[in-house]
Amino acid sequence: MTDGLVLDRASVTYRQSLGHSLTAVDGVSLQIGSGEVVGLVGESGCGKSTLARAVCGLERLSAGSVSFDGAPVGRLGLRKREQSLLRIQMIFQNPYASLNPRRRIGQQIEDARKINPGDAPRVAELLAQVEIEPSAVNRFPHEFSGGQRQRIAIARAVASGPDLLIGDEPIASLDASLQARVATLLRDVAVRAGASLLFISHDLAIVRLIATRVLVMRSGRIIEEGPTERIWNDPQQPYTKRLLKAIPVADGLGRLPEIDELVD
Ligand SMILES: Nc1ncnc2c1ncn2[C@@H]1O[C@H](COP(=O)(O)OP(=O)(O)OP(=O)(O)O)[C@@H](O)[C@H]1O
Question: 38 lies in a domain?
């Protein structure tokens, strides 16, 4: 049995109008070992979110397989699949995607703790880990700032005891001044919980802060991968070089220019 997440030539194809189809994930093979922190980078539209959704069983594969600790995620019966998917938690760009706006934050974290097969830290401790005052348990998500809400979403995701956390651009909607802090905090919380982390971002500079290994995605494929410092200091692919070059010229919102314009 192989520990952790394994994708073997996984593809996702979307049907489009007039009989056209788009292969958003194109034969991707990768492995994320237990406790690893891996960054997935690439320009907007290269297939990062589709890949994340496929890992969680939210997209049907058109080819290949996804397995977790040796169990194929997509081919299990519903009950077993639900159990196995509880071990993978997503953190989205918009924290409202995982937080219930009508439920107090303490209750939401407690709900997640109840499905934890192991010993989850108490709600107050989880909140302290994400630097939220434990006395805030009775407040609702809208009473917090965007950065605080994202930290609460991180606490809720960890409370259910996942083996793998996937952050799909989890800092993209935050002020530039908060991005590095929330990314580092997510990494620290994942490591403390013993979970692996797949951190998806278009921003290699932030990924460099927290990931030990980087996967570079373009047009549905992983075109380069390696230790973060190797990718940062000695990128092999022209696309990766352009991603790196684009960092200093990011606009005030942290957006990269169109990479294809630069590469082709
Ligand atoms: N449900 C869908 N139906 C059809 N096409 C889709 C669907 N979801 C995504 N796509 C297309 O698949 C490709 C990959 O999209 P995806 O959202 O995975 O990329 P991404 O790298 O996460 O981009 P972003 O960072 O902008 O979210 C894009 O061309 C997108 O338009």
Answer: yes
Domain CATH number, residue 17: 3.40.50.300
The count of domains in the chain is 1
Average pLDDT over residues 97-109: 92
Domain, as residue range, for 176: 5-87+162-263
Å from CA of 51 to ligand 1 middle: 9
In a domain, 65, yes or no: yes
11 lies in some domain: yes
In a domain, 171, yes or no: yes
Residue nearest to atom 4 of ligand 1 (CA): 14
Percent of the chain with pLDDT strictly greater than 90: 70
Q: Which residue out of 11, 13, 14, 21 has the highest number of ligand 1 atoms within 8 Å of its CB and is therefore the one to mutate? A: 14
Q: Give 14 Cα–ligand 1 centroid separation in angstroms.
A: 9
| Pocket mutation for ligand 1, best pick of 13, 18, 20, 22 (most atoms within 8 Å of C-beta) | 22
* Nearest alpha carbon to residue 59 among 7, 116, 112: 7
47 close to ligand 1 (CB < 6 Angstrom): yes
Q: Give the distance from CA 99 to its chain's centroid.
A: 16
Q: What pTM, to 2 d.p., does this model score? A: 0.89
Q: What is the pLDDT of residues 183-218, one digit of tens each?
A: 999 999 999 999 999 999 989 999 999 999 999 999
ipTM higher than threshold 0.90: yes
48 within ligand 1 shell (Cβ under 6 A): yes
Count CB-CB contacts under 10 A for residue 185.
20
**How wide is the angle at C-alpha 44 spanned by C-alphas 40 and 50, nearest 5°?**
60
- Paired tokens of 60: 């049907």
Q: Report which of residues 2 and 38 the model is more confident about.
A: 38
